[in-house]
């Protein structure tokens, strides 16, 4: 039985940052994740994708963000159960939770924080004949390493942030980039829309709207596709077709834990601490929902911070926690085999 103060289900950015905030409160954390490494989607799906809305980083690769978060929490020595999925939970008479994975590993904690992001997911696929026969042979749904497309002819389909961001990024990598979208309007950030339009005006990318990809062709791999625009079909040679229509999320076994669910997300009380309808179980990051919810990493960081404050009160109801800034509080020491510890702790616990 693995015992800890806060059991975090999901080792993505929000789950990792929760370890830091808990560590400042001298609370130990253990993380469970179905992936074989920490980082969630940032590590598994788009480690080389640039992120632009992390404070103090005008641009940071998703994989680098994860590395920085791991370095930040290293002094607090979190535990990990990786490559296993949390499948069941039970509450004991002494207000502890027992979480068991699909491999039978049991974990015990007075607080559980679900930080599972979108949960398990699969890409939304366009309804194209013989699509599956070209998968991994020119059709990809996820961009892990942009260098894979160096000097290649790439066609991206979609109108959201991922389609826009990768169009902008791959313009400097691929020999040609074409973005196809079925509408003239895009769903992504306005700044990204402007950048894509500028690249089109400069002749650096092809932007085809409103249009849809209607056919794929090639003998042993993708060689060309056909898009239809205003009733006219046009053939376009390409090496890769990347439809970025988003992911279909599924909560998996967590959906059967008695939590209040709304549109495949866990409802929480955002007026205080992001607790679910079950006291002691919290949900933070993209996995939760509440009025005004924004699915942004920086919002997950905020939610993790308030969750840890509430968790401390639940675990130590008789202790007082005084907020102090990291620039004015103490120092933690570690032996020489570890990286230098964080220079301060944000809380003074009495």
Count of spatially separate domains: 2
Characterize the main sheet: 5 strands, parallel
* CATH architecture field of the largest domain: 3-Layer(bba) Sandwich
Strand content is: 25-35%
Distance between the termini: 30 Å
SSE layout and pairings?
Layout: E1 2-3, E2 6-9, H1 13-24, E3 29-33, H2 40-44, E4 50-51, E5 60-61, H3 62-73, E6 79-82, E7 86-91, E8 97-101, E9 106-109, E10 111-114, E11 120-123, E12 153-157, H4 161-170, E13 176-180, H5 190-201, E14 206-208, E15 212-217, E16 224-229, E17 232-237, E18 240-243, E19 247-250, E20 261-262, E21 265-267, E22 281-283, E23 288-289, H6 297-315, E24 321-323, E25 347-349
Parallel strand pairs: 1-9, 2-3, 2-10, 3-6, 10-22, 12-13, 12-18, 13-14, 21-23
Antiparallel strand pairs: 4-5, 7-8, 8-9, 11-19, 15-16, 16-17, 20-21, 24-25
Q: What descriptive keywords fit this protein?
A:
four-stranded mixed sheet, 6 helices, 20% helix, disordered C terminus, FAD/NAD(P)-binding domain, 25 strands, 2 domains
Descriptive notes:
The protein starts with a strand and ends with a strand. A hairpin with an 8-residue loop joins strand 4 and strand 5. Helix 1 runs parallel beside helix 6. Helices cover 20% and strands 28% of the residues. It is built from six helices and 25 strands. The chain has two domains: 223 residues, 3-Layer(bba) Sandwich (FAD/NAD(P)-binding domain), CATH 3.50.50.60; 117 residues, FAD/NAD(P)-binding domain, CATH 3.50.50. The radius of gyration is 23 Å and the shape is elongated. The protein has 350 residues and is α/β, with parallel strands linked by helices.
